Fold these 3 entries.
Entry 1:
Amino acid sequence: MAERTAVIVGGGIGGMAAAAGLHRRGWTVRVLEQAGAFTEVGAGISVWPNAFRALAAVGVTGSLGAGPIGVAGGLRDWRGRWIVRMDDTTDATRHTGAAVVAHRAQLLDALLDQVPPECRMAGVPVRAVRHAGHRAVVSHDGGELDADLVVGADGVRSAVRSSLWPDAAPPVYAGQTAWRIVMPRPESQAAPGARAWAETWGPGGVFGMFPMSQDRIYCYATATVPPGGHGPDGELAELRRRFRDWCDPIPAVLAAARPEHVLRNDIYYLPRLPAYVDGPVALVGDAAHAMTPNLGQGGCQALEDAAALSVLAGTEPDLAVALRRYDELRRPRTQQLWRRSLLGGTVAHLVPAPLRVARNAVLRAVPRSLFLRSLAQPFSWRPPAEIVTK
Ligand SMILES: Cc1cc2nc3c(=O)[nH]c(=O)nc-3n(C[C@H](O)[C@H](O)[C@H](O)COP(=O)(O)OP(=O)(O)OC[C@H]3O[C@@H](n4cnc5c(N)ncnc54)[C@H](O)[C@@H]3O)c2cc1C
């Protein structure tokens, strides 16, 4: 095949994975990132078996320096009563497979390792994209670049989407803000059999806690509040106040955290798009389908998008055919998970006590194997088969 060129807008997880996958299949790639460096925020990210298959398809193997999630734990109410309890040695590991909570920086570094430095341009905000015959042209602060393929991997407020999908609805505030904490493993969680690895649901809020490695843990919390808020005396003080009456070890873990460990972001989702492809331009990740974090699948889907796009565009000689197939494969799957995630967030954040009691009773009555099977349903994804060209 003649040399083919791709410009990738955005050097986050989705963009770097697309760059890695296309570079691996012989494309000449250039990644334009608006930030001054290719970096990720200091937070954890759940990486499920579907994402590990996507990573393998773009050339990344290994455990990302993280230990498996499949430990004793489950889902509790804020008083500490188990709603769904799992045992390390039984169902949980079987259903979650090789899932880990990795540090985002480690995931991004593993992707950056697959893309030569000369292909990456930091400090280059893209302003717009337009078609030029069968090709596309990207305008950035320093000029223009044209390519056979442009990948919009520029997140929930995508400039690529604004250029070519002008009728797309803007991102919507999901009703919750999220805090994320990466911190040293506290004393209460040091025992090998510690049972509090769990997501805990309370009135209008969630607190989650998972091991990342021998010496670090990842916590996240959400609360139903108006957008744009800030803790008046800092986010850690805000968290300690909000979660002080929640069950052990949440207050103790927050007591051991430090203010610099805490990140806060409002959660936005993107209303569904009618297409992920326009001519030689394809959207991946949050630019196409930003979803609420309740399934822990947003980033995993960005990786799946990148793997599917690079397998199809990398091996199908007719790019238009490859991109049509990309849209057909990715839109139904990501939009189904988007819906499930939104529903999961609504169910997790119920406020009225009678509704919460009823929800917990229903979940307790569901056979554990059925609960785990439904949770694990997204994990069976595999990348499209490579098309063999002569
Ligand atoms: C609280 C929270 C918890 C989450 N937890 C999980 C989880 O556990 N597991 C999971 O799989 N997912 C999770 N997600 C979702 C996940 O973070 C996103 O789906 C993922 O980061 C999307 O990756 P992306 O590369 O598409 O977009 P982004 O990560 O947003 O990256 C976009 C990149 O494009 C750059 N950019 C933007 N505009 C421009 C421009 N005009 N020009 C050039 N560059 C530009 C940005 O600087 C950025 O580097 C969570 C999300 C939140 C909010």
Entry 2:
Amino acid sequence: MHKLLEKLSRDHRNLEKILALLTTQLDNFFAGKESNFDLIIELMEYLEAFADQGHHPQENLLYQVARKRIRGHDELFERLARQHLDLAALTRTFRHSLEGVLHEAVMSRAELETQGREYVALQHLHLALEDREVFPLLDAELTQDDWDVITTNMPKHDDPVFESPDQIRFYNLVAYLEREE
Ligand SMILES: [Fe+2]
């Protein structure tokens, strides 16, 4: 597998770790058990700062090049672009809803839970589609010239938790992951 796809796959494993952590915290929160609300907010902030603003723009460039080169998959590449937009909107919406809970905004627990569960489910579906269908297709079809174009134009974006941990912005999350190791 091309090293860029390996890097994006590593991002996916990290994102799955974040989603698993988010699910556990939400399970506890919605069951009325002890949960770490600061950690939940940081998880959402990480998904916005990294998945939506770092990882997805890199994949978007990859898919733009791939779409021109690999015929007959327009519908797939349109779906991926649409999912990136939908996920970014859902991240923002759910994060705002969670913050609203802190400020006692009027939203039922059931409504909040539905929003959170749908968000996590779409993230999983999206990652699975890329891991199972899209990355293997790109790995098989793209040429060295394609990869050169992609690598040259790739927007740079460090992962603020797994690559260059921002101990202040993601205080709870970085500390949690360190304890886990
Ligand atoms: Fe993606």
Entry 3:
Amino acid sequence: MTVDVEEYFQVEAFANQVSVSSWGSFKSRLEGQIDILLEVFEHHDVKATFFTLGWVAKSCPNVIKKIVNQGHELASHGFMHQHITRQSQEEFRQDIQSAKKILEDVSGSAVLGFRAPCFSIRHDNDWAHEEIALAGYHYSSSSYPINHDLYGVPNAPSTPYRLGNGLLEIPVTTCKLMGKTLPAGGGGYFRLLPYAFFKFLLNKSLLSGGPANFYTHPWEFDPEQPRLPGDFKSQFRHNVNQKHAANKLRRLCNDFSWGTMQECYLGGDEYPLFDTWLKAANAKSTN
Ligand SMILES: [Zn+2]
């Protein structure tokens, strides 16, 4: 169970309309949103991994303390939520190193995991996984092996694998149905699809070997958040079914057992090895 912790005004869908320099003018809604998630997880005895922005650790340190005080794992979502394809190698290095440092300073605990904003590690930025390992992270959950207009590396493996530099990459869960690879790992699809169908996809993905890697965001549980300017597609993806998201999450927590990334994946299992990210990213096309 994973949560990508960012403010509603920091999402990629509105990045063209909401500049980084304007973030300070928005009122934070994060604490109330996190409280909803923490209450659901506590009620269902679920421990989760919270991939959190360094920016959040700086602006809302009390949110970090709430997360770790309830026994959840704190991990990194970078500092400034910038798409990797818009960063130089040097900018990316500084971003993920400073995020790790502030998250560890504020929480007092080691941060082992990293998730790239918008799963933005693509075929053409092989240096990203090198930098993630060099920054001291043990695992990454930055690839989504599907076809999508904003992200996705469709030919990457759909189950965890280790890279030559020792980093473990843990893909978001997908499901094969009638020859197509469908997203089964959460996000907007979880709000959009009827719960019974999402549960069917998740169960089907578990048949080919678990655990499942599910992700959500705090802003998905806040139908009262201010509307941001954007095109219809972005508005729809961001806002659809937020009103019912908490109830769906309760059902998901009730119907499956969930743990942190460390609990589920770092227990000494052996994973397939790829020398480089490029080889992993093309794994299915060379099979
Ligand atoms: Zn994000």
